[in-house]
Amino acid sequence: MLDAIVRRAMGSLDIDAHLAVQPGEVLALLGPNGAGKSTLLRCLAGLLAIDAGTIRIDDVVVDDPYLDMFVTPEQRPVGMMFQDHLLFEHMSVLENVAFGLRARGDDKATARREAGEWLERLELAEFAKQRPAALSGGQSQRVALARALARGPRVLLLDEPLSALDAATRATVRRDLRRHLASFPGMRVLVTHDPIDAYALADRVAVIDKGVIVQEGRLDEVTSHPRSRFVADLVGVNLVRGTLADGVLITASGARVVIADERRGDVFAVIRPQAVSLHRHLDDMDSSSPRNMWAGQVADIDLQGDRARVGISGALPLTAEITVAALTALRLAAGDEVWASAKATDIDAYPT
Amino acid sequence: MAERRVRDTRTRLPIPVVALAIVAVLFFALPLVGLLWRAPWSHAWTYLSDHETLTALRLSLISSLWATALSVLFGVPLAWLLARSEFRGRSLVRALCTLSMVLPPVVGGVALFFALGRRGLVGQWLDHWFGIRLPFTLAGVVVAQTFVAMPFLIITVEAALRQLDLRFDDAARTLGASRWYTFRRVTLPAIRPALTAGAVLAWARALGEFGATVTFAGNFPGTTQTLPLAVYLALESNPQQAIMLALLLIAISFGVLVGLRDRWFGRVAELR
C-alpha cells in the first residue's frame, strides 16, 4: 500500500496531509486550484522532497527526512501522468511509450515490442508512428497513460487527468480512463478540482483545502454528509449548522429549518439544491406540503445546460437548482424577492 | 477586394523605415559589389587554383571545423551550467566566457600568448611536461579561433535551454531516466535547432577570424596562414589575388549562411 505523511512548505502554503491508499484503490484528491494537490502529488513522485513525515510504498520508505532517506523519482516505483501530458514532441508515439523501458536499460527491440503491446492494450496501435502533435486530447492522454504504465509502477499518479480536454470529449475520455484505470492493479492517486471526475474515477475522496485534508471518505458519504462549508460548496450542496430540538433546527442567524428528525443538539443539515423549490408568492404554498418556507432575494443565477442554479440570500442563504423552464416561468432576475421551500423529509441531519 | 486592401494596409511600412532599411542593405551590398566589379575574372581560375590559395583554404576549413567541434564539446556543458545551475558568481562566469565576443581579437591573441605561449603561464608547463607548443602551429590557430567563436555557441544554446519547459525533465525522471539519459534523449533534441544555429555562428566566426590568429599563431603559409590572413598578405603583394581570395571566403560563408538560415534559424523562430 501507499502510506504517506507529508509535511511540506511551498510558498505561503503549508501542506500537512496523511494519505493511505490500498492496492487496487483509486483515491481522488479533490480541492480548488492552489489547495496544494499538485504539490502533494509531486512529493509522492519524488519531484519534491518532503520537509517532515514519511512516505512508504509497500512498506519501503522512499522519503523520510528523519531517517535521511530519499529515493529519487527515477528509482521510485511510481508512474505519473501530467496535466498537459508532456509527451516528448520529437519522438513518435511508440518511442514515447518505449522511453521508460529504454531508460531502464531494455534493448531497443524489446522496448519497442513491449511499448507496442501497451499501445495495443490502450487501442493506440494505429498511432504508433505518429508524432504527439498529431493526436487529439483523448489520444494523447492515453499515450501518456501507456507511457506511465509501461514501466510497471506500483503507484500511478494522475494530475488533473481531464482538465486539458474540451467539454465535448471529456465524458468519453473519462469513461475510457475509468476502464483503463480499472485494469491497473496498483495504488492510484488522482488530483482533480471537479467532483464529477472524482465521482467517476475514484473509490475514495480526500478533500484538500489550504494544504490540509478537511474530509475523507467514500464520495457519496462526503457528498451526503459534508462537514464544512468548504466541502459542501465543492460538492455543490447547501450545508446548514444549528441546534436541533423537537424537529426544528435554529441557525446562529435565527433561521428555522423544520426537519423530520428526533435528534437533539448541534447538527449539520444538508439541503440538496434539487430539493429546493422557488415561489413568487407565499399563497402559492398554502395548500402544499412543504414545512419549510424561507423569504429571500435572488443573489445570482448560474445557467448549466438545462439547469439553473439560483443563489438566494436571506436569513438562510441557499442555492436552488431548478429547470431553465421553471426559471422562465417564474421570470426570476437578480434582486427579486422570492420564497424558497423544502420538504422536511428531504433534509438530512447528522451530528457535528 | 476589400480583404486585400486590409492586408495591404497592415503590411505597408512607413516610408522612412523602408528608406533607412534600404540604406542598410546597400551598406552591406556595396562592398560586395565593389569586389565583384574589381575582380580579375579573366584570371580567376589561376588565382584560385594557386597552391598557396588552396593551402590557405584547406587550413581555414580544417581549423574552423576543429574550432566548431571544440566549441560544441565545451560550450554545450558550459551553457547548461549557466542556464540550469545556481551558483555564486554565475553572472561573472558568463561575462568572462563571452568577453572575447566584444574584445578586440588582437587583444585576445595577446592574452592567449601570455597564457599559452612558450613562456606563458600555462604554456611553459605544456612545453616542459608534454612538449606541446601552441603558438605558430595549426593547433594554435584552432585555439585562437575557438577562443573567439565559442561565446556565439554558448549564448545561443543557453538562451534555448532557458526557454525549455523543465516539466519535461520531471516527466522523464518519473519514467526512470537518469539526468544524463534525460539530457541526451530529451534536452538535446529539444535544443537541436539552437545548437545548430550556434554551431554555424561559431563556425562562421572561426572562419573569418584574423586578429587573434595572427597574434597568437602568426602568419606562416602552409602552417598557420588561413584565408583571412592570406587575403591580408596578398593585399600588399598582389591586390588582384586578394580580391579573388576575399570573394572565395565570402562565397563560402554566404553559401553556408543562406543554405542553413531558412532551415535552422527558421525552425528556431517557429519554436518560439
Structural features, described:
The complex is a heterodimer of chains A (352) and B (272). Chain A is an alpha+beta fold and 352 residues long. Chain A folds into two domains: 2-230, Rossmann fold (3-Layer(aba) Sandwich), CATH 3.40.50.300; 237-351, RNA polymerase II/Efflux pump adaptor protein, barrel-sandwich hybrid domain (OB fold (Dihydrolipoamide Acetyltransferase, E2P)). Chain A has nine helices and 21 strands. In chain A, the strands form four sheets. Chain A has a six-stranded mixed β-sheet, sandwiched between helices. In chain A, strands 2-1-4-5-6 form a five-stranded antiparallel β-sheet, with helices on one face. In chain A, strands 14-13-12-15-21 form a five-stranded antiparallel β-sheet. Chain A is elongated. By secondary structure, chain B is mainly alpha-helical. Chain B has one domain (50-271): MetI-like fold (Orthogonal Bundle), CATH 1.10.3720.10. In chain B, 81% of the residues lie in helices and 0% in strands. Chain B has helices spanning 2-11, 15-38, 44-48, 51-84, 90-102, 105-116, 123-130, 138-163, 167-174, 179-207, 211-216, 227-237, 239-271. Chain B is globular and about 65 Å long. The two termini of chain B are 33 Å apart. The A-B interface holds A 42, 45-47, 72-76, 78-80, 82, 86, 88-91, 99-100, 102-104, 147-148, 151 and B 165, 167-168, 170-178, 181, 185-186, 189-190.
